[in-house]
């Protein structure tokens, strides 16, 4: 058996002789299967088919929760601690996925985890497809659906792999034994296989499914449209793309829209859990808080968390609660102010304290806070007390003042801090908190431009300082921070993106649009975000979103017209619409804008190594092959260029 592989032969012989001499009738290492259940006699009927296909779904949780390779190094999220960059301090150290320095190599841990999970998913799907002719007693409609689900999930996995790594191994049959060989397949051939699989899915998949979360024809059309859109950009002339891909992608988008199966929600906020901002408001029950969001018709495909009976397997399983949880609510920084917060309580204010994905200045300043409902839906700019508390300011914790106010007393529900939107900054001293010179409020009042805090070289201390709105888009009341047991389904495909993909395809030369010019598709998404009260108005973002101290009068309109619509404008809009939802790195990879947008908007990418930008388009649009893969192949799998 394999457990003996590292034991010397002499030791094995001695052990076997000893066992023989003591007269055991049955070797204690012999495998015993009392149910006589094997893959060959279980995966033969409808129950076996369902079990096998269902096993392909849980890994979507692990894959989509691996956000390091999909959010790091982008324009809208950055690692915390970039205040040192802002203040010009030397030798600042952040995350290699954002600084693109020498640490970003084949040993970076996140690479192997993502790679391994994608290939695990592929092998599960390959098992279904290899055995598809073995199942008896299954109707043709059910068989078509289950085979289509496996093809879709394999295609999705290869799509993520080929974008991250380019040429990759492409096994298409079940792996039953280990192998040392792992020959790469050219990226263009991987894309050909993906398109072939998805085209078959579109032809055979049902329009609707009984079980929530199963793949439908609409999901297949969505993914095929995105694959064709990506191939059309033809990264490094390596994908086999042509301008015809943009027209084909546009046609699929128009078909999804025309089906009316996935209409845009009337209110953007209905896509996300219900969560009152003030703790004095009635907090909805855990299940009720996501009920509306989880049945949204706008969502074409969501990774399932609401019902643990569906696709139970890998993921964050809590045996006591019977939940396999979403962790989106705990992944984004920043959290609440530190004043009057009840430690260890279940109220979300005390729990939402970032896990490393920090919005950049540009992320906040891309919105028009007064007109665009997505700003308040994504961020909470007011912090409330979750416990009664008295705060005393003194020279020990605040050296801004020369005289100090009487202790500040808070009741539950009192405001403790406010961050003013970038385009309506606080300007009068009297409108500041009492922790500032001339301030009159018993809560801190700061501007978004102060997000990185006060100058550390000045030695400023202020226990009331808070200038970073809470990222609260995904929070589910009653679910503690960082436990990973939210029941909110992760919406990875929704129809708002269909409109923006169509707009991008038109800008890139796609023809035959049903709704009109690219701006028409774009403005469908924008107008929903503006809501009834602001319908038809023109919102403004900051002219230079990365410049937090820029005058608020320097603005750029973001209503699209036939004259101003561009890929860059569409990327702005997708950032506003899907902040934290989307795998943003893929958008920038597809459009080849990491070198412009991420360098411009992400402080760590712009800073590079000791102030010298390290992003290299010839190298960094592909990731290094994980060392763990190189170590187990013979001949060694070839590393990507530059690593």
Topology, element by element:
Layout lengths: L8 H13 L17 H4 L3 H9 L4 H6 L3 H4 L5 E2 L4 H4 L9 H4 L9 H22 L9 H26 L21 H18 L12 H17 L10 H16 L26 H9 L4 E5 L13 E2 L4 E2 L33 E2 L1 H5 L7 H6 E2 L1 E3 L4 E3 L16 E3 L4 E6 L23 E4 L22 E2 L18 E5 H13 L10 H13 L9 E3 L12 E3 L9 H12 L5 H8 L2 H8 L1 H5 L9 H4 L6 H5 L12
Parallel strand pairs: 10-11
Antiparallel strand pairs: 1-5, 2-13, 3-4, 6-12, 7-10, 8-9, 14-15
Helix pairs in contact: 8-9, 9-10, 10-11, 11-12, 11-16, 12-16, 16-17, 16-18
List keywords for this structure.
three-stranded mixed β-sheet; 36% helix; Serine Threonine Protein Phosphatase 5, Tetratricopeptide repeat; two-stranded antiparallel sheet; 643 residues; globular; mainly alpha
Structure notes:
The protein is mainly alpha-helical. It has a domain at 42-263 and 489-517 and 565-631: Alpha Horseshoe (Serine Threonine Protein Phosphatase 5, Tetratricopeptide repeat), CATH 1.25.40.390. It contains 23 helices and 15 strands. The chain has helices at residues 9-21, 39-42, 46-54, 59-64, 68-71, 83-86, 96-99, 109-130, 140-165, 187-204, 217-233, 244-259, 286-294, 361-365, 373-378, 495-507, 518-530, 567-578, 584-591, 594-601, 603-607, 617-620, 627-631; strands at 77-78, 299-303, 317-318, 323-324, 358-359, 379-380, 382-384, 389-391, 408-410, 415-420, 444-447, 470-471, 490-494, 540-542, 555-557. The strands form seven sheets. The chain has a three-stranded mixed sheet, with no helix packed on it. The chain has a two-stranded antiparallel ribbon with strand order 1-5. The model is unreliable at 1-26 and 311-315 (pLDDT under 50).
């Amino acid at each position: 058996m394999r457990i003996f592989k590292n034991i010397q032969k002499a030791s094995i012989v001695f052990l076997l002789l000893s066992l023989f001499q003591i007269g055991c009738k049955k070797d204690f290492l012999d495998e015993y299967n009392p149910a006589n259940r094997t893959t060959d006699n279980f995966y033969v009927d409808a129950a076996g088919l369902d079990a096998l296909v269902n096993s392909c779904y849980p890994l979507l949780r692990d894959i989509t929760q691996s956000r390091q390779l999909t959010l790091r190094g982008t324009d809208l999220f950055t690692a915390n601690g970039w205040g040192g960059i802002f203040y010009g301090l030397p030798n600042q150290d952040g995350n290699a996925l954002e600084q693109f320095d020498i640490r970003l190599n084949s040993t970076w841990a996140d690479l192997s985890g993502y790679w391994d999970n994608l290939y695990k998913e592929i092998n599960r799907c390959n098992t279904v497809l290899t055995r598809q002719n073995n199942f008896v007693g299954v109707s043709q409609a059910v068989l078509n659906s289950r085979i289509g689900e496996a093809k879709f999930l394999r295609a999705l996995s290869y799509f993520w792999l080929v974008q991250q790594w380019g040429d990759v191994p492409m096994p298409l049959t079940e792996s039953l034994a280990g192998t040392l060989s792992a020959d790469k397949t050219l990226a263009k051939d991987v894309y050909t296989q993906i398109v072939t699989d998805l085209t078959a899915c579109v032809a055979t998949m049902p329009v609707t499914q009984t079980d929530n979360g199963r793949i439908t024809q609409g999901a297949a059309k969505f993914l095929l449209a995105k694959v064709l859109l990506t191939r059309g950009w033809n990264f490094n002339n390596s994908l086999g793309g042509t301008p015809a891909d943009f027209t084909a992608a546009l046609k699929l988008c128009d078909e999804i829209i025309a089906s009316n199966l996935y209409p845009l929600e009337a209110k953007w906020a209905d896509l996300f859990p219900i969560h009152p901002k003030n703790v004095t408001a009635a907090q909805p029950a855990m299940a009720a808080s996501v009920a509306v969001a989880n049945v949204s018709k706008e969502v074409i495909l969501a990774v399932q968390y609401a019902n643990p009976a569906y696709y139970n397997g890998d993921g964050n399983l809590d045996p006591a609660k019977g939940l396999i949880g979403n962790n989106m609510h705990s992944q984004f920084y920043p959290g609440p102010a530190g004043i009057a917060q009840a430690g260890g309580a279940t109220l979300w204010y005390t729990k939402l304290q970032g896990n490393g994905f920090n919005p950049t200045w540009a992320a906040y300043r891309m919105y028009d806070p007064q007109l665009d409902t997505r700003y308040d839906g994504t961020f909470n700019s007011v912090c409330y007390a979750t416990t009664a508390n008295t705060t005393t300011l003194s020279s020990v914790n605040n050296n801004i003042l020369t005289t100090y106010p009487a202790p500040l007393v808070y009741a539950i529900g009192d405001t403790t801090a406010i961050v003013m939107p970038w385009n309506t900054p606080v300007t009068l001293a009297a409108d500041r908190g009492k922790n500032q010179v001339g301030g009159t409020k018993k809560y801190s009042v700061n501007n978004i431009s102060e997000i990185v805090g006060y100058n550390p070289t000045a030695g400023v201390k202020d226990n009331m300082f808070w200038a970073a709105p809470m990222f609260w888009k995904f929070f589910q009341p009653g679910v503690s921070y960082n436990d990973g047991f939210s029941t909110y389904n992760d919406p990875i495909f929704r129809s708002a993106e269909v409109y923006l993909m169509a707009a991008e395809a038109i800008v890139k030369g796609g023809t035959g649009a049903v709704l009109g010019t690219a701006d028409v598709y774009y403005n469908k998404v924008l107008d929903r975000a503006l809501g009834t009260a602001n319908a038809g108005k023109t919102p403004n973002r900051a002219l230079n979103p990365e410049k937090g101290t820029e005058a608020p009068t320097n603005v750029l309109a973001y209503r699209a017209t036939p004259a101003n619509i561009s890929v860059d404008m569409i990327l702005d809009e997708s950032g506003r619409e899907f902040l934290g939802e989307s795998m943003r790195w893929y958008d920038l990879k597809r459009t080849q804008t990491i070198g412009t947008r991420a360098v411009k908007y992400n402080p760590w990418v712009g800073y590079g190594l000791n102030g010298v930008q390290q992003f290299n388009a010839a190298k960094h649009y592909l990731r290094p092959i994980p060392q763990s893969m190189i170590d187990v192949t013979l001949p060694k799998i070839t590393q990507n260029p530059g690593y």
